[in-house]
């Protein structure tokens, strides 16, 4: 029942806006993700196996606030693997254990981004993902940590050229569907993301009838 309500509400808002419900303003870039072997395995192939992947990166604002105002910023990464896309969605947050679950509005794109909610792997019941973004170097260090553990890096993300506005408009991330069996989203936030993102994508594909716009 809740899933249906969230889906319908998100679809309606997206139709009215002709834009995403969440993080409507942003820009997309090409990228490359270089995964290195971690000190201790995390229990997920994407985090543990050294490899290079083509990536799509999107930097965005959570809400359409005026320019210069603090906002919840987003860093979305689509990793193009042989088994399909893997979408990792991070938001501006704190890096310390007690702040990993909280949104942290800010003005500057540089800084720390976290998954807020966790992922279940073969070794951990709840593993958090994070990234330290440096726009000057056009790169981000991706890392993971347990609930109270220290952050351990596992990959370097290179941010490449900017992609067209048309591409950005059509780009749709699915943090629930585009995951691996050994890196599954868990928790309430992750649970609610699914219907909201699916509804937003559906709404962007269909416009409201004229009678509903009067």
UniProtKB/TrEMBL annotation:
UniProt-listed SUPFAM superfamilies: Heme-dependent catalase-like
GO molecular function: heme binding
Protein name stated in the entry: Phosphodiesterase
Organism this protein belongs to: Virgisporangium aliadipatigenens
High-level lineage: Bacteria, Bacillati, Actinomycetota, Actinomycetes, Micromonosporales
């Amino acid at each position: 029942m809740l899933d249906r309500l969230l889906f319908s509400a998100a679809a309606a808002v997206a139709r009215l806006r002709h834009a995403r419900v969440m993080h409507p303003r942003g820009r997309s870039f090409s990228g490359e993700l270089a995964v290195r072997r971690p000190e201790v395995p995390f229990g997920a192939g994407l985090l543990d196996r050294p490899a290079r992947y083509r990536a799509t990166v999107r930097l965005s604002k959570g809400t359409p606030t005026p320019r210069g105002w603090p906002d919840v910023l987003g860093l979305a990464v689509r990793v193009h693997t042989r088994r399909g896309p893997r979408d990792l969605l991070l938001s501006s947050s704190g890096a310390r254990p007690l702040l990993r679950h909280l949104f942290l509005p800010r003005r500057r794109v540089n800084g720390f981004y976290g998954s807020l909610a966790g992922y279940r792997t073969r070794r951990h019941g709840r593993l958090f993902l994070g990234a330290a973004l440096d726009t000057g170097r056009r790169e981000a260090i991706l890392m993971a940590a347990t609930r109270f553990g220290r952050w351990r890096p596992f990959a370097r993300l290179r941010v490449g050229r900017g992609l067209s506005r048309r591409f950005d408009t059509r780009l749709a991330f699915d943090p629930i569907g585009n995951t691996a069996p050994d890196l599954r989203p868990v928790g309430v936030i992750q649970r609610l993301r699914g219907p909201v993102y699916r509804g937003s994508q559906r709404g962007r594909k269909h416009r409201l009838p004229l009678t509903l716009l009067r």
